[in-house]
Amino acid sequence: VLVVRDFDGNVFAVSNVCPHLGTPLHTGKITADGAIVCSQHRSAWSLATGEVKGEWCPFPPVLGKITGALQPPTPLLTYGAREVAGQIEVYLNLDAKKDLETKTYG
Prior knowledge:
Layout: E1 2-5, E2 11-14, E3 29-30, E4 35-37, E5 44-46, E6 52-53, H1 63-68, E7 78-84, E8 87-91, H2 97-102
Antiparallel strand pairs: 1-2, 2-7, 3-4, 4-5, 5-6, 7-8
GO molecular function: 2 iron, 2 sulfur cluster binding; metal ion binding
Organism: Cyanoptyche gloeocystis
Protein name: Rieske domain-containing protein
């Protein structure tokens, strides 16, 4: 799990594994529009939703398109995350997202 902040200071938790070829996403970058970009093939995903943003596997030229054809555009797994009293909480149970949004536990 990779925990990051966007340019506005919002906290997000996403899988640290690129869905395309398994590259660790902590080697990528966060963009001003709230995406994380894989350092290997430069696909990007929304930090909020995990949806693919922009072109799938645009890099390297030519080869990116070939490796991109190995797997269709795939969303990035996201987890509920929030900051409470200076502490970051990440909900690893995907079914717990509703609890996070309603600010209840258990």
